[in-house]
Every structure is written in C-alpha cells, then in structure tokens.
Write a structure and sequence with these properties.
By secondary structure, this protein is mainly alpha-helical. It is built from five helices and no strands. Helix 1 packs antiparallel against helix 2, helix 2 packs across helix 3 and helix 4 packs antiparallel against helix 5.
C-alpha cells in the first residue's frame, strides 16, 4: 500500500510539472515501504555503503537526489535518484 501511494505521489508530482512537495511525499512513502518489500536486513545491507561494497556512489547519488528535491530542484533531483537506483540495483 505504501509503495503504491509513494509511486502515485511521485507520478502526480511529475505530471504537475515536477512539483517538489508531491515528489518529496512520494519519496518518503516509497522509502518507508522498502523494508516491507525486501525485508529489514536486505534494506540495511543495500543502503549501508560499508557493507554494500561499491554501492557508495549509487547511495550518495540517491540521497543527494532526495536532498535536491527537498530544496526545490525537482528535475535534477529526480535524475540523480534514477542514476542512484541504476547504480545500486544495476550491479
């Protein structure tokens, strides 16, 4: 349920010309649902740069994307989040 709400808010934020508030709410809801999807231990391993090996670049890009969205730089923040996701899950 949290995943659907998070993705819905993100989609609505993008459709409404990258509204930072809606995208930020979507990020929080999606991140809150992540431990329910893959488990708490897998989430801790994924977002831990010391345990994940070379995922530090993806983690840094994803977190910086969230920070940029909170500071109203929605387009650049979303691009950084996508890059971070590709770096974290692509390897």
């Amino acid at each position: 349920m949290l995943t659907v709400l998070g993705l819905g808010f993100m989609t609505l934020g993008v459709l409404l010309f990258f509204d930072s508030g809606l995208i930020a709410i979507g990020d929080v809801l999606f991140l809150a649902s992540f431990p329910f999807l893959v488990g708490v231990q897998a989430t801790a391993n994924l977002f831990n740069p010391f345990k994940a090996g070379n995922n530090w670049r993806g983690i840094a890009a994803f977190v910086l994307g969230i920070v940029l969205i909170l500071f109203k730089w929605a387009v650049i923040g979303m691009l950084l989040q996508v890059f971070g996701m590709v770096e974290m899950f692509g390897r």
